Amino acid sequence: xxKIVCKLFGVxxxxxxxxxxxxxxxKINALLYYILVSKVVSRDEVVxxxxxxxxEKIAKKNLRNAIYQAKKSLGEDIIISPKKSFLxxxxxxxxxxxxxxxxxxxxxxxxxxxxxxxxxxxxxDAESYEYWIVKMRNYYKEKFAAxxxxxxxxxxxxxxxxxxxxxxxxxxxxxxxxxRNFRLLMRFYQDTGRNSKVIETYYDLSKLLRRELxxxxxxxxxxxxxxxxxxxxxxxxxxxxxDVFFYGRYNELATLEKTFKDFREKKVGKSILITGEPGVGKxxxxxxxxxxxxxxxxxxxxxxxxxxxxxxLRPWRAIAREISRQIQQEKLLPPTLWRDLMTRVFPxxxxxxxxxxxxxxxxxxxxxxxxxVMVEALTQLADHSQVVLVFEDLQWMDxxxxxxxxxxxxETDPLRVMLVATRGKERSRALDDALTTLSRYHxxxxxxxxxxxxxxxxxxxxxxxxGEHLTGDTLEHIYNxxxxxxxxxxxxxxxxxxxxxxxxxxxxxxxxxxxxxxxLSSGELELVNLLSxxxxxxxxxxxxxxxxxxxxxxxxxxxxxxxxxILEEHESEGAGAFSFTHGKLREYIYQxxxxxxxxxxxxxxxxxxxxSLDEKKRDTxxxxxLIYHFSASGDFLKALKYQIDTxxxxxxxxxxxxxxxxxxxxxxxxxxxxxxDQIGELFRNLESSFKKVRAGSRNTTELDxxxxxxxxxxxxxxxxxxxxxxxxxxxxxxxxKSKQLGNRDxxxxxxxxxxxxxxxxxxxxxxxxxVGLALDxxxxxxxxxxIGIILRLKGLCHYMMGNYTQAEKLLTESINTLAVTExxxxxxxxNIAAAYNYIGEIRLAHGTYREALELFQKAISxxxxxxxxxxxxxxxxxxxxxxxxxxxxxxAREFFDKAYxxxxxxxxxxxxxVLDSYMALTLLRQGEYGQAxxxxxxxxxxxxxxxxxxxxxxxxxxxxxxxxxxxxxxxGKAAVGDRLPDSVExxxxxGMGEPLAHPDIVEMVxxxxxxxxxVELLSNGTLLDARRTAELLDAGLDMLWLSIxxxxxxxxxxxxxxxxxxxxxxxxxxxxxQRARLDRTVRLGVAFVVMKSNAHELALLxxxxxxxxxxxxxxxxxxxxxxxxxxxxxxxxVVDWGxxxxxxxxxxxxxxxxxxxxxxxxxxxxxxSLLSTSMCSVYLSGQRVSRAARHCRFIDEGMAFxxxxxHVSPCMSLLRNATLxxxxxxxxxxxxFFGDLAEQGLDEIWNAPDYADFRRRVRNFEFSPCYRxxxxxxxxxxxxxxxGNDAPTCGGCLWxxxxxxxx
Length: 1303
Prior knowledge:
The chain has 1303 residues and is an alpha/beta fold. Helix content is 54%, strand content 10%. Strands 9-10-11-8-12 form a 5-stranded parallel sheet, with helices on both faces. Strands 16-17-18-19-20 form a 5-stranded parallel sheet.
């Protein structure tokens, strides 16, 4: 007997023998759900629920049809009617229902409650049925909550903690305002020893209740919290990770409240000191603490003021005044001596005591007497109520006041008199002594407040400005500007809310910074003004060189500024260096400097720093400082020089295959590589700088030399990156200009770059010409090391031409030339390693693999630890290839993995396709077919960048091996040769129009999911509100794609016809919040259509994607459906590239080519035409030559596209009629469908002969190569093609060419 399983909790699902059952329409589902719960129902009851507005006759006919369809879908009489007026669930069948099981034994089956009853299920035009769902949903929810709550109580009591936290979270999800759930969680944390988590949970609850309901947690909750306060040892001991809080000040508040509570309850008496820099929140937390003071406490509060720090006992004057009032109020009459002493020390005291006479004696009052009277006064007051002395800014208290405070605290009862004070980071010896005394006798609890770290800072901003969608760049900018200081953070948040410029300081920030600089001496001001010209720490020797003061004076001033917490000291290269304690201090002081002083001082600093340059050891950090100072001084020519030096230094490594090493380069951990984006930005900055300098400079000779260097650097970079036309133009310009200027050095460098260009495109003949020019020039100039390098290149040239003996001789000579001394050998280690590598390649060509491997390993050993990543990656690839031929596949993968690790650290496609190909071959040999195919696909993609025929040949070789392996191995053929699924695996809603506008989209998603298929949806996000998000997730959506074609609000509105990007961002945040709570993975993707007008925004995509938790980004070109979009395309030349079709028709002739001189122009012309056609199969030495395959991703991945009316199309392009504009021609694309879901099932359509045959033709791509020949009439009409295919014809499809890409 079949087993039917009905899941009604969460998203409903019915299976039969493990297979999902799909019911044709929603009311059949509704009928079945109702019967499953009710067991016996009357026909009239069901008719009234499901078809309330229909005529009775029609309604009953609908019911009979629904029963029939349920039977047909399930293959069983699940609903029977022994009496015509009643419907009964057939209990003779093996039916299992989670609702039944839960109802019978809720405790044992509590795990079956996976969500709301019939979650997400909705029935139109059936209000009574919806009411029933709501009633049952609430019933089961309350039942689950009661059982879950009781179970958690028992588990906590019995110390069964395994799933307690998860169960409490489920309860919280049901009602986030139910305080009982928070209490359970707090008890759980308390019982498991995580008291700090109790405190954190309590503060989270307090914040929630106050914000949403305007109430505080109840007494029971607070008792649990206070018990945890008792348990935490704040004074010492090792804290667990959970006890450390960096955001919200939970730990600090807990420490303070526990200390204050102990004092209030007279358990333990300790004073409190809150420390931290200005703006860190000391006063805020102190005010929060003092809210805990009770009515029977006397709070005596005073601020210590910086200007009064030299006035003895000034802070105590206000305390004495308040004590006087309290004495008068409480009718406490002190002894005459006490009263008289108080009057002499604090004259104000006289105003508040009756019958006191002012003592005219001018004799000083003994300090011990002052202590005595103050202790006696406070003691008498404390007899009536506890006394709390509150001092703000204790660092400004005078020494006498500190002595008095220490004595009072030590001589009064700590359970009756308490100190609460704040202290800045300014240093005071008297204060340190006082605090040391209190700490020694365990009379003080110190609570330091630190700045927020970057993570806490981001949380702080996101919580404070929930409506703003901030980019990662903005968050990082705010953190860098504020350095985590809460005061500055608050000001930045205000500016965010008011959409003000974040680069300007608010009046409150200026006022706070100005107050830090009050009362500085002229010498201190001179130093801070000087140091504000530096953006980082300034070495002491630099400070001394820029001032007229002697060393002792400067050291004394620096020490005073450190005491004032304005400067801090660092160690730099074994010596002291000084910087501001906060960057905003430096910024404020620097902005206050006159413009004329800025130019002069920056120029002076720049010249001073130039003197520390070391030609033998380049320092890029120093270069950046020189650029900064000379730019600020207006000396743009000097700044330009160091900009070029910086870029050249980095590119010597990332774009020189075998760089010459210097001292910095070999330092471990130094990053000498830049990304493609960084390099592009630097080039753009340099071009802008050249225009500025050219407009104002008179030194044309030096400028000419800098431009020469710039063109050389850029040309070298472009050639290395495969942009040959622009790169070669730059290098030819360098050679010509060098000849005009008589600069032999750059002439030689230009020759070398042309050699490397011809090496990359495998043109040995042209390479030999420039080798001769370079070697001749190096000899004439007597450049010994350059001769060694060029000998290697000459040897490589002979190797490429097959002259192995001569090649090895030249390579050996190059090694001997560069290894003449140990010092030179170290400097040219990568060049020597390259020569060993090429000799290894000769051995590899001869088949002596062991010798080759030894040579490659020798090359590797010379480069390890030298930061020459490009060189090492090349050697690892060659070593891996050799291991592959030795059939040591483990060793091969080890070398390849090392190469991949290096490629991840620098941007280059050099030899990448070779690496991918051989990794694919290795995996193929190891039987890992799926992974092998992925690497081979990547090899095909990467081979197009460098355009090296050798690399292309390797890819062709790998493809041939794959085909051969597939012919011999059935498993391999199944995995590699035909990866098309047997049936539809993915439902994709979207492509043409907005799917969320369809009224039944949620039901469609649910239906697709119930069939066990993957469900994806593409939307513009405008309609994706919180309700629709919940419905889609409940229905089983697996991936959401959002079309976002611009990251700038204005451009987005222009492209998307006034849509709002801000609204879409809000919806993304809500989507992420909801999917994070699911127990399954739901992915988020962005579909970005790139055009000329928005291509520059590609650089922002990684930041946008990271911030909004995007899992995948699909970038496609624009489809030219009109003249405007045709002008926006970025692929006019891409589609022309061809090297023969990889899958020609069986009837195509075979052409076998012999080996020949491929570099000969005559041969190249014929081969270009031969390899660009798809009408034949070209074989070279028995191996077929092909380009990367045209293919259809939609067919390869088993996709089918369903139009809104139910018609099924094989791809996105054929869903509708369209006109394609291309090179002044128009192509008519006509829709094509293989069936209608209203008439047939999807699998039936999928497996129909015409659809299956079409997929076969697409997989083999038996269509004419329209974009690789002239666009003829066939292409324009789209009805047939040159191979005789009738519509649909795919030769004119831009998707197959790889320029249009859908998610």
